[in-house]
């Protein structure tokens, strides 16, 4: 099942085939057990209307959640970019030699964060997370020696 979730196009094709076969099996069983025409039944119209209404709600909620998640990710990216830019500007408060070193570390960190938002395999993502944590540690070590003690 995890394989299908990781490959959405294949999941779509498999789902389409399974649903198509289910519909044909249901139609066959209906004709076999109840040879009369179901389309003329008033109950069929009610069930069809309710099913299509639920399908419309499902599609609407799906798009709403997808759009909300997209907006949330876009906002997180913007906040992170602003934080990195602010840090880059505040590095000017350090002595020149330390400021240049921290700017280099920030450029390395920025490269890793940009790479994070590209398409990565799970192994590459794990390596990126490790590299990002190490870069954060180096940045923190370079900055903390200039922080005043509380």
Can you count the beta strands? 0
Q: How far apart are the termini? A: 53 Å
Structural class: mainly alpha
Order of helices and strands: HHHHH
Estimate the mean pLDDT confidence.
Answer: 88
If you compute it from the alpha carbons, what radius of gyration comes out, rounded to the nearest whole angstrom?
28 Å
Shape annotation: elongated
Strand content: under 5%
Q: Could you describe the largest sheet, including whether it forms a barrel?
A: none
Point out poorly predicted stretches: none
**What helical percentage do the residues reach?**
over 70%
Please report the number of helical segments. 5
Explain what you see.
The structure is a single chain. This protein is mainly α. It has a domain at 51-144. Helices cover 83% and strands 0% of the residues. It has 5 helices and no strands. Helix 4 (96-116) runs antiparallel to helix 5. The two termini are 53 Å apart. 1% of the residues are buried. The mean pLDDT is 88.
Which features characterize this protein?
5 helices, elongated
Topology diagram in text:
Blueprint: H1 2-6, H2 8-33, H3 42-90, H4 96-116, H5 122-144
Helix pairs in contact: 4-5
Can you summarize this structure?
The chain has 150 residues and is mainly α. Helix content is 83%, strand content 0%.
């Amino acid at each position: 099942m995890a394989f299908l979730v990781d490959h959405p196009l294949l999941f779509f094709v498999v789902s389409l085939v399974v649903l198509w076969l289910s519909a044909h099996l249901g139609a066959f069983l209906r004709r076999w057990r109840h040879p009369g025409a179901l389309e003329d039944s008033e109950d069929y119209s009610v069930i069809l209307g309710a099913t299509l209404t639920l399908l419309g709600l499902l599609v609407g909620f799906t798009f709403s959640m997808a759009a909300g998640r997209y907006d949330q990710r876009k906002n997180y990216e913007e906040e992170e970019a602003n934080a990195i830019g602010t840090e880059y500007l505040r590095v000017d408060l350090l002595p020149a030699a330390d400021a240049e070193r921290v700017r280099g570390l920030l450029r390395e960190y920025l490269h890793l964060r940009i790479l994070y938002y590209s398409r990565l395999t799970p192994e590459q993502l794990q390596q990126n997370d490790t590299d990002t944590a190490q870069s954060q540690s180096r940045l923190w070590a370079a900055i903390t020696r200039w922080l005043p003690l509380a």
